[in-house]
Amino acid sequence: MSTTKWSIDTAHSEIGFKVKHMMFTNVSGNFEKFDASIETEGDDFTSAKFDFSGEIASINTGNADRDNHLRSGDFFDAEQFPTLTFKSTSFEKESESDYKLTGDLTLHGVTKSVKLDVEFGGLAKDPWGNTKTGLSATGKINRKDWGLNWNSALETGGVLVGEEVKLNIELQFIQQ
C-alpha cells in the first residue's frame, strides 16, 4: 500500500488551550500560525504519523499585554524558543472514532511525551472534490514540566496562573 500525505487546512483548524486564572476562571488562547501534516498507509489512519509545529509569537489570548508577557522570558521566551513541535510516536485505535495519540512535544527547549484523546471524524469529499479528514484532540499538560514556571501568589492564597493547561485542538486535513 502506498503512503498518503495529508496537509493541514489552517482555515478550518484551531490550536486552542485554557489555563485557570486566579484559581477560578479559565483564560483561553490559541496559536494563530502553525503547520501540520499526516502520513498514512492509504486511507488507514491506524498507523498515522503526525507532525506539527507552531509559532510561539503567534499566541493570542485576546489581550495584547498578556500575549506579550506570554512571549517574554517569564513564559515561552519566543525569542530563544520560537517554535513548538509535536511528533507522534503512536496513534492507537480504541473504537470506531476514538484514538489515543502519543508523541513528543518540544516546547521551551524541553521535550516530553504527551497523550491526547482524539476523535476521528472520518473522510469526506468537499464541494471541490478534495478528500478531507477532521480530528478533534483534547488533553492536559502541566506547564511546569516544560520549564514554564512563572507565577504570582495571591493574597487570598493560591496562585495567579494555573499549572494545568487544557488543550483543545480542531484539525482539518486535505489529502495530497
Automatic annotation (TrEMBL):
Segments forming domain Lipid/polyisoprenoid-binding YceI-like: 5-174
SMART domains: YceI
Designated name of the protein: YceI family protein
Native source organism of the sequence: Flavobacterium qiangtangense
